[in-house]
Amino acid sequence: MAYENILYQRELPAAIITINRPRVLNAINHETIAEIGRALDVADADPEVRAVIMTGAGGRAFVSGADIGELQAMDTAREGFEHSRRSHEVIFKMEHLSKPVIMAINGYALGGGCELAMGGDIILASENASFGQPEVNLGIIPGFGGSQRLPRLVGRTKALEWIFTGERISAQEALQWGLVNHVVPAGELMQTAKSMVDTIAQKAPLAIALAKRAVYHGLEMGPRAGNEAEMTYFGLAVGTADRKEGTQAFLEKREPEWQGT
Ligand code: COA
């Protein structure tokens, strides 16, 4: 499949999606969003891919935000709604993917870049990464999920402070507030992400998929309903051949051989 704004590399067991518009610090336009969506479908359908890593080209930015040229050219509320909806759909796709999505944030993750980062399951940041929701500087608000995911990750008051001030958040501050999982030296970022994929690739594929679904599904509900949902997903996991193999292998003191069924 041909892409113009991203790179798709199959480095098994990972698929690496690199946002590739370094001239504009990887700002994402409509076509970039669409290409990310297509690449996610390809990764999901590939049984040898066990997780997706998403990063930015060029070393300075993960994603500098939505393409401000495109935002400037909009004339109607309807265009704004569609712009937001298209991005939301791709971020929902990341959350619904049957495989983990690991974000390797290697520089600016501003506006839509911060929101795309928060669409991942695990967020790794290089020491030079920075985050922020500066939309109010442009007369808009977060439109790729920032008003919802940021308060759920860092708490309402911190999220509102960052959204009102548009301030730049360092990787260390992001770590302190639970926005990112780990901060690592820039030169170690991709290797850290790949090592995490290697670890995940040793686990049962369906168990990973069901655990991810249980977490996201449960977050949409109250705790009682979420735990009820977990019972269903647990039951589905017990129904897999890999559960039989995993438990049997433990008892026989050998490594399991996963079939993904
Ligand atoms: N959309 C479109 N173009 C962008 C962009 C964006 N979100 N962010 C950066 N660019 C472009 C710049 O216009 C510039 O293009 P030019 O070389 O043709 O002039 C190029 O990328 C490099 O950016 P520049 O601003 O010169 O780099 P810098 O190192 O001085 O600053 C940033 C980097 C990220 C701090 C700054 O570019 C910035 O504030 N970008 C916008 C961030 C933002 O508001 N994002 C949310 C959008 S909703």
Walkthrough of the structure:
- The protein is built from 11 helices and 10 strands.
- By secondary structure, it is an alpha/beta fold.
- It folds into 2 domains: about 5-200, Alpha-Beta Complex (2-enoyl-CoA Hydratase, Chain A, domain 1), CATH 3.90.226; about 205-250, Lyase 2-enoyl-coa Hydratase, Chain  A, domain 2.
- The chain has a 6-stranded mixed β-sheet. A 4-stranded mixed β-sheet has the order 4-6-8-9.
- A hairpin with a 2-residue loop joins strand 1 and strand 2 (about 15-20).
- The longest helix is centred in the N-terminal third of the chain and has 20 residues, at about 75-95.
- The radius of gyration is 19 Å and the shape is globular.
- The relative contact order is 0.11.
- The model has no long low-confidence stretch (mean pLDDT about 100).
- Bound molecules: coenzyme A.
- Coenzyme A (COA) binds next to helix 2 and strand 6.
